[in-house]
Amino acid sequence: MPVYEYEHTQQSCSLGATFEVQQSIHDAPLTHCPECGQQIKKLISRSNISTPRSNAELKDMGFTKLVKRDSGVYENVTARDGDSRYVVRDKPETLPNLSKTIRD
Q1: Residue 100 phi, psi dihedral angles, 5° rounding
Q2: How many CB atoms lie within 10 A of CB 1?
Q3: Residues 62-72, buried b or exposed e (16+ Cβ, 10 A)?
Q4: Is 33 within 8 Å of 40 (Cβ atoms)?
Q5: Domain map of the chain by residue range?
Q6: Residuewise pLDDT in 10s, the chain (104 residues)
Q7: Which residue(s) pair with 88 in the sheet?
Q8: Helix spans in 1-104 (H)
C-alpha cells in the first residue's frame, strides 16, 4: 500500500508538523489528523522515477529513439538487426520493425 504525507494546517501534534499514513489508493484523502483531530492537508511527495541514461538502455527496454537529422530524415539511434539506420519520410520500408519490440 502507498504511503501518503500529510501536514497540519495550524499547529502540530505528537505526530509532528508532517506525518505519513499508509492508505489504499482507493481511500479518500484524510482531512483531519487521526491523533489530534486538527485539520490537515495532503502533500505532494517526490517520487522515484528511473529513466534510461543511454541509447543502449532505451534499446534494451524496447524503445525506439529517432533523432531528426534533416527535413523528413531521422536517424534511428536504437536500430536493431534488420532495421534501417535512417527513417525517411514517405518511405515506409525504412520504418523500424516494431514486431521485434512489441509483445503481448
Answers
A1: -75, -25
A2: 9
A3: eebebeeeeee
A4: yes
A5: 3-42, 55-100
A6: 788 999 999 999 999 999 999 999 899 999 999 999 999 999 987 777 788 889 999 988 888 899 999 999 999 999 988 899 999 999 999 998 877 666 65
A7: 73
A8: 55-60
